Amino acid sequence: MAIHELKEQIARLPEQPGVYLYFNADGDTIYVGKARALRDRVRNYLGAFGSDSKTDALLNEVARLEVIVTDSVVEALALENNLIKQRAPKYNILLRDDKNYPYLQLTTNEPFPRVLVARRVERDGSFYAGPFLPATFARKTMALTHRLFGMRSCNEVITGKRERPCLEYDIKRCIAPCVDTVCGAEEYGRAVALTQLFLEGKNDELLNTLGARMADAAAGERYEEAAQMRDAMRTVQTLHDRQQKMATPEFGHRDVFGLKMGPAGLVIQVFQVRSGRVVERVELGSEQAMAGSREGEVLEAGIQQFYEWRGAPPEIHVPAEPDEREALESWLSERARRRVRILVPQRGDKRGLIDLANRNAALVYQTRFNQTTAAQYDALETLQAVLALPAIPRRIECFDISTIQGSETVASMVVCEDGRMRRGEYRKYRIRGREPFAVSATLERQGTQKLQKAPDPPVNNDFAAMHEVVLRRYRKLLEQGGPFPDLILVDGGKGQLSAAYTALEALGLANLVAIGIAKKEELLHTRDRVDPIALAPHDPALLLVQRIRDEAHRFAVAFHRRARTMRDLRSELDHVPGIGPRRRRTLLTTFGSVAGVRRATREELKAVIGPKAADLVLAFFASRP
């Protein structure tokens, strides 16, 4: 495995907070993660193979490792977020926003900057503020920068040599940098600096600057400029007071997260509550398969990416505790310049709002992704709950035996992954009847007849056949190192199930979970329950199990028919010396049967297989009664 080649480097990593980066053979960043102690966190990957398909793919692709040490976990969190945003590693959870809220762009990459409305943040040297919610607030704020600070709104190339200012100067919405005798580059630069303070929300610093400029203008008897600074201070103070009022917890200012994960991806619904009312709904989504991802991991990524360009309210309500909650709270509080708490409500109206967000996320998931896939995932969740499984049974392997009175006994194994049949992983087996079959204590408790050794072929014992095929299948998987299923399904009742567990115990795999489904009653049999589990006839979980069982039965029956056909084709011609498979097929195709070959004349045989072979066939049948 690729990750093991980095074992020596991992052993030398520091036990300090930081960020680790995995690269593939092409030098592309494929995963970025953070850690409280780099060595401990990265070392966990050495034993993570087999935990889930996503982790397995990552570990097999890793070719190089780099780390960046930070002073704290909060710094590691911020650095991780920036690196994920810049490099978009394919194994990180990357979410997309369904709403493209506007930003304000201060074009500081120009000699005479402007304030523009932008729909996305670019790395072009400009300063960006936002996003603004609702969108109309962006244009209102842009208009304030013209009125308060005289930022230009034209597209002219500013040289300062224009003869006279335009109408914008006359109505006091621009300080006219186009005419250098009216406004020079230095004065316009001061206006740009004030605008950036305003857009950054540094209102206290801005008010102090405006007050100093007002006093300076008044002392210099520039009363019109002083009045302009006074009006700007009043406007900024009004906006500041309004923001402070909106940010108080008493008015129910919070964001509520809802989450729905599935095999096709995930959906996060964010309800933005202001003054106790839901004023906006934002949807984040990803079409990455979420195999192996935990709710805490997903919520951590969602919070980081959601608040990268948004201000955080005093409270954020989530359905489960995100990873590194304390580090997230510190990061958000530092950005908001006040305390931000992440809470997991358990009851009352707050929990009710989270449940509502979860239901909306589930509805969007079913709408965005394939309806059938979503229903299959619900069936898997039901199976997990009914069978008390530790994880969702994403991979299910099902076995079926097909025989007629012990003749040509065969078995089939089909694979269902995330509710979809994986035909490329189907397997078929001829039952040999050579595997010793000693029944486990489980079988003895259930009173099943004890067999010390399976009978020689033909095999006329479903228990022995099930034991053999399960033993052969998972002995092979042990040699290959997996992947092992989350659930094993056998076609049959307690007897077949106990035979399967006997094989698993012999291999040291008794930790795997197996169930049996009996025909007619369609009951689910488990090892730990005396009574079978009865699901409603139209329960999606039962329908999924039946579909998998029926597919295994179809595959076994098809193989059994082919086996019988091949047995029928095995005939006296197999014993004719000098007649190989190709000539046998030619003879049977031409004459229809062995009897037809026996009745054929030398001339007829000669025309089909040549004179020497014709003589061999005639001599063979002449020697037999």
Short descriptors:
625 residues; 6-stranded mixed sheet; 7-stranded mixed sheet; GIY-YIG endonuclease; 5 domains; alpha+beta
Description:
The chain has 625 residues and is an alpha+beta fold. The protein has five domains: 2-92, GIY-YIG endonuclease (3-Layer(aba) Sandwich); 103-246, no CATH class; 255-369, Nucleotidyltransferase, domain 5; 383-565, UvrC, RNAse H endonuclease domain (Nucleotidyltransferase, domain 5, 2-Layer Sandwich); 571-622, 5' to 3' exonuclease, C-terminal subdomain (DNA polymerase, domain 1, Orthogonal Bundle), CATH 1.10.150.20. The chain is 44% helix and 17% strand. The chain has helices at residues 7-11, 38-43, 53-61, 73-87, 136-149, 167-170, 185-200, 203-219, 223-246, 295-306, 325-336, 348-368, 371-387, 441-445, 462-480, 494-506, 540-569, 581-591, 594-599, 602-609, 611-622, and strands at 18-23, 29-35, 64-69, 96-97, 103-106, 115-118, 127-129, 254-262, 265-274, 277-286, 315-317, 341-343, 395-404, 407-417, 420-421, 427-430, 487-491, 514-517, 524-525. The strands form four sheets. Strands 13, 14, 15, 16, 17, 18 and 19 form a seven-stranded mixed β-sheet that branches. It has a six-stranded mixed β-sheet with strand order 4-10-9-8-11-12. A hairpin with a 5-residue loop joins strand 1 (18-23) and strand 2. Helix 13 packs across helix 17 (540-569).
Describe this structure in a few short sentences.
The two termini are 64 Å apart.
